[in-house]
Amino acid sequence: MILRQQYLQKLAKLQDKQLIKVVTGVRRCGKSTLLQQFQEQLQRQGVESNQIISINFEKIEYEPLLEYHKLHDFIVDRLQPGKMNYIFLDEIQLVGEFQKAVDSLYVRPQVDLYITGSNARLLSGELATLLSGRFVEIQMLPLSFREYRQLTGKETATAWREYYSWGGFPYLPSIEAEEIRYDYLQGIYSTILLKDLVQRKKIQDVELLESIIRFLVDNVGNLVSFSKIAGYLVSHGRKTSSQTIERYVRALEDAFFLYKASRYDIRGKEQLKSLEKYYVVDMGFRRLLMGNRRSDVGHILENIIYLELLRRGFRVYVGKVNELEVDFIAERDGERQYYQVSASVMDPRTFAREIAPLKQIRDNYPKTLLTLDTLPQEEDGIPQKNILEFLLES
User: Fold this and answer.
1) 154-185 confidence digits (pLDDT tens)
2) CB burial class (10 A; 0-12, 13-18, 19+) of residue 112?
3) HSE-up of residue 394 (Cα within 13 Å, Cβ side)
4) Percent of the chain at pLDDT above 70?
């Protein structure tokens, strides 16, 4: 087990604040473990065990509490008067009308509330209306490469080969046999497919859903539109429409399986409404669905860098400058950075092609070319940085 320090530090800063802490993310990315680690951290600070109420709704012993009145009463009966009470509710979306119990607990004195969920709709609809301005979301992802290397203790090159091929789900490094790794990833994928998509979103055409998933996973880093996806599937014998594609893709985003990067016109200073890119939450799913293909290294690296920028708290866009494309615009707290990602730019023509969009940007924000090369080049003050060094930065 590795301490997820980035997320633990966020929770620590919010401890005892009158805000509901909502941890969201794809299934098996480590949300339950994070809550457990934070509870242990509280106990090291002197918090007594009876001040902590922790419920994981995926455990069958808590099935009677899936009705919100019973959940509320169960917790209230265990609150310690005169002390701060720390309440942890894991996979809260399984409780019908859970927001009513959460709101009632929130308004009680000396209650510090933490909840997790595997669906973005957790923070929409009635919950957002009822608790507007009273919660803060912490979006969690599978392991970063830095965390993966720390967890495995392997030297950088070996850890990178594994991470690049199998992704960063926290339990995966403990599985040695490849066939068991496939089974483990298949289990996560099937759970997302059946519980988060088919059951929750009432999706009836599972075969169409899987066709869309395979198309988008195979086209990571390519500009797509709903009409383009529909056209491709229709040409391969599937009857569908842009509206259906949009509904299914939005469901995949809600389940944190896919993340969208919209386009932004750097010169025109506006977000573009046509075409966007999608990135999968973990490269293990690409291995599961596409096999061990060695092609398209550049787009796989793009996916890894995109997720890393999200971990670092950036909002990420695809940039357009004149007719050229900048892989990523990363914005955070009023700052902006530009990144271009390529497997290698040792060929002078490739270097010229990859650095050209960055050279056309006329502002003074930092611009970086990220590659796997170990011999960095620089032009017009634009540095080239090794991807592994970038990923291992604090």
Assistant:
1) 999 999 999 999 999 999 999 999 999 999 99
2) buried
3) 1
4) 98
Helix (H) or strand (E) run with residue 113 in it? strand 111-117
Q: Could you give the CA distance from residue 138 to residue 121 in angstroms, rounded to a whole number?
A: 14
Q: Which amino acid is at 334?
A: G
Token pair listed for 45: 């600070």
- Enumerate residues 6+ apart whose C-beta is below 8 A from 221: 277, 279, 296, 298, 299, 302, 303
Mean pLDDT across the stretch 205-229?
96
Distance set, CA 296 to CA 115, 237, 262 (Å):
38, 26, 21
- Give dist(CA 368, CA 349) in Å, integer: 18
Average pLDDT, rounded, for the chain: 95
Q: How far apart are CA 310 and CA 325, in angstroms?
A: 20
- CA–CA dist 204, 202 (Å, integer): 6
Indicate the burial class of 3 (C-beta count within 10 angstroms; 0-12, 13-18, 19 or more): middle
**For the range 74-81, what are the long-range contacts, defined as Cβ-Cβ under 8 Å and sequence gap of 24 or more?**
75/101, 75/105, 76/105, 76/108, 78/50, 78/53, 79/53, 79/108, 79/110, 79/111, 80/48, 80/50, 80/51
Give the pairing type, strands 315-321 and 382-386.
unpaired
pLDDT digits (tens, 9 = 90+) for 15-68: 999 999 999 999 999 999 999 999 999 999 999 999 999 999 999 999 999 999
Distance CA 25, CA 257 (A): 9
**Of residues 75, 134, 68, 63, the one with CA closest to residue 99:** 68
pLDDT score recorded for residue 127: 64
